[in-house]
Specification:
Layout lengths: L4 H22 L3 H10 L4 H22 L12 H17 L3 H9 L3 H24 L4 H4 L16 H8 L3 H50 L4 H8 L1
């Protein structure tokens, strides 16, 4: 039954629908998680992204520890840095990440429809360029080991580290999750401090207003007239 294409198609449709519904209702966006934090000091999406990363890290490394799942293996190199930088510029110009672009396209946003379309066009054209002419042959450069001449750093994920060091992958997952949790905690403390400072400022402003009203009442003159007379 699990190998039945119809069953797999229905399962994929169900889970994709659930994820799409959650994304649409939560308004989650990777671009907003970074952009809003840096420009507007709004960490709503940032905290959501960190929480997802923590849960995903622990879940995936737990599966790797027991030898289950099929972790993706990809090479880390200059191509990742350049690609992520260009992709980040594109996301900011589009005003949304790929996930929220799909959501906004479904809502009828024409601008993000173009962004989604040309995301695929760009990936297709670059795949042709890469395989035909660039990065002295990929098969020779990407050997899963550090290759500084080819600007590649090899493969390094929890499964690889577990195989090379004998340390369970979940240990590396716990370390990464702890770092992410520390960042999350730092953000929460910053938000609380900011909220407390705002509340203190409002309390001081209210106290000043009450003092002015009390002074005006003591001399039998409305505060507005007193201010005008002083001027």
């Amino acid at each position: 039954m699990h190998n039945d294409p119809t069953y797999q198609l229905l399962a994929s449709f169900f889970f994709a629908s659930v994820v799409g519904f959650l994304m649409q209702r939560s308004r989650f966006c990777n671009t907003a998680a970074l952009r809003d934090a840096m420009l507007f000091k709004n960490y709503r999406n940032t905290k959501a992204m960190l929480a997802l990363m923590i849960v995903g890290t622990l879940g995936f490394t737990a599966f790797m520890t027991v030898g289950a799942g099929h972790p993706i293996v990809f090479e880390v190199g200059i191509n990742q840095f350049i690609g992520l930088f260009l992709f980040g510029i594109g996301m900011v110009l589009a005003g949304a990440c790929t996930v929220s672009s799909w959501v906004k396209s479904g809502e009828g946003n024409v601008g993000t429809m173009w962004a989604v379309l040309f995301t695929f066009v760009g990936m297709f054209l670059f795949s042709l360029y890469w395989s035909a002419a660039y990065w002295p042959p990929a098969s020779a450069t990407m050997s899963q080991v550090p290759n500084l001449k080819g600007l590649q750093l090899g493969v390094a994920n929890a499964a690889t580290l577990q195989r090379q060091t004998g340390i369970p992958a979940i240990v590396f997952g716990l370390i990464q999750a702890a770092v992410l949790a520390a960042i999350y905690y730092k953000i929460v403390r910053y938000e609380r401090a900011t909220e407390q400072a705002r509340a203190d400022a409002q309390a001081r402003a209210a106290a000043v207003a009450q003092t002015e009203e009390a002074t005006a009442a003591a001399i039998g003159m409305p505060r507005g007239k007193q201010t005008a007379g002083n001027l």
